[in-house]
Input
Amino acid sequence: MPDEIVNKVAQSKLVTFDLEDYYPEGDRVILDIKDWLYEGLILREKEFRRYVSEHNWKQYQDAYVALNCSSDAIIPGWAYMLLSSKLEPYTKKTIVGNLEQLETTLYQSVIENLNVSSFKDKPVIIKGCSNKPVPPNAYLWITSKLQPVAKSIMYGEACSSVPLYKRK
Output
């Protein structure tokens, strides 16, 4: 009888860490205030406050919102603070920036609060491919978070991983 095929990866103590598993669910929205400015460039306080008071803030319920201005206008800090105060009762998170900055902020929070004690003294492979938008910084942060506890850290897939760290 021929030798049985053995899946050595399945038998190994290797633990896969997939950042996609920690993707914060919820809608992502960009709130571009360019159209709330005079000629798309000048913030006139009275007009701006009118737009703010007439805007439907409830539409952002349970969303992650990135506030930005797509024109080259100089926006005073208080304007974003005012918008944030209106969004606070509805959104999960609000930032000033773009969608990539929003994802980065969300992952930073997730990783900072992550309990990694289950990875103590284990070889860990950080999965590289994902279908969800995992920002590049998330890979750096999870590596730093795991390094004090993991026996070793690799990147990629079990069949073709790149070694990153091994405790001495």
